[in-house]
Each structure stands twice: as C-alpha cells, then as structure tokens.
C-alpha cells in the first residue's frame, strides 16, 4: 500500500472555557490514501473544523502526530509549516475568499505565481481548470459579477491550480442553495478525481458524504468509520 498522504495518530486538542477544560479531539487516528476522497461527518460543534485546522497546520496547541506525505509535520517550526502548506496542501472554505479586485483567471493565476510558475503557464492552467468547471465564458469577470456557485467554482479551481497532493475542504458548498450545492459539489468531486488529489471534506450533509469514497464520523472527539 502507498504511504498515506495524511496520517494522524492520537491527535488531541483541548480548550479552557470559564475555567473548564473542553476536550474537542480526544485521540484521532486517521489515514487518507493518495487519490482518496474522505468525508468527515459530524454536527456543528463536533470539532470538524478543529481537525481540519490541525491537519492543515493552521494552528498550534495540538498533541499527537500529523504526517503529511510521510513527513512528520506537527512539530515543524512556523516556516516549515508554511512551506508544507504551500507545497502539499490546498484549502476550500464555505465562503470563497476570492480577491475582489482580481478577475476569475487572476484569482487562479496568483497562487501559481507565488509557487514559481511562469505567467504563461499559470494563465494556461487557470483557463483549463475554469473551463472544466463551466466558466470558460466568465474568465474575465470579477467576483461581484459572478453568482455564488460561480464564485465557489473559482475557489475550487484556485485550490487545485498547484496540483496539491491533499485538499482540505470545510463545508465547501454549505453557503449555496441545495440545487447549486449538488451541482458544484459534483464538479468539485470530478475535478479532484481527475487531478488525482486526495481530499478530506468536512460536512454535516450525509447525502453529500455518500458521494465520496469513504465516510468517517467525528463523535465525542474520536473518529468512527462508517459502513
């Protein structure tokens, strides 16, 4: 079997609130294989976002092991975490967080330029991804000229632009109406599979979770594998 693109062992996170200790993650063990799309189920407040922040190396204060691409990441210094996020991870959130002064293409080009791509290569890649997502006629439109579903498609293209081994998505279509959510989520899954990336997708929607390769549920701070 290939080395997991993501593996956690005994991952823990606690908070103090009003002098009371709250254990959000209580020993999470998870492995995501290359190319695998895993649904992370759980109601609001169950710790899904906390887990994504941990494996995305966005916060400290966690205990346990986080291995990304076979490399231990939990104890990396700040610069090492930044490098690993840039090289191996991509993020999609419920809200698109597009740059308002840049058009759709420019929003997808920018992370590639930061990574060191030439402008011509970045432009070609952005056009390719946006066209696959049905936005070939909206390449020069700014976010305020796009619908909610179109904005989220641009966010998906931006996340995949640098061909990340692992995509972390937190309710990626939760801000859309049901019909648009279904359509955009299907396009997201197809693109991730075509690109060969792995993904860990937090959701409370069991219907969307069933469309992924595997489902795990966060319950009382631990993961349960679902049939």
TrEMBL record:
Keywords: ATP-binding, Cell inner membrane, Cell membrane, Hydrolase, Lipoprotein, Membrane, Nucleotide-binding, Transport
Protein name, as recorded: Lipoprotein-releasing system ATP-binding protein
InterPro entries given in the database record: AAA+_ATPase, ABC_transporter-like_ATP-bd, ABC_transporter-like_CS, ABC_transpr_LolD-like, MacB-like_ATP-bd, P-loop_NTPase
GO terms (BP aspect): lipoprotein localization to outer membrane; protein localization to outer membrane
Location of the ABC transporter domain: 6-227
PANTHER family: IMPORT ATP-BINDING PROTEIN, LIPOPROTEIN-RELEASING SYSTEM ATP-BINDING PROTEIN LOLD
EC code(s) of this entry: 3.6.3.-
GO cellular-component term (any): membrane protein complex
UniProt key word Iron: no
Family: Belongs to the ABC transporter superfamily. Macrolide exporter (TC 3.A.1.122) family.
GO MF assignments: ATP binding; ATP hydrolysis activity; transmembrane transporter activity
Protein species of origin: Sphingomonas trueperi
Domain of life according to the entry: Bacteria
Transmembrane segments: none
Keyword Lipoprotein: yes
Entry-linked PROSITE patterns: ABC_TRANSPORTER_1, ABC_TRANSPORTER_2
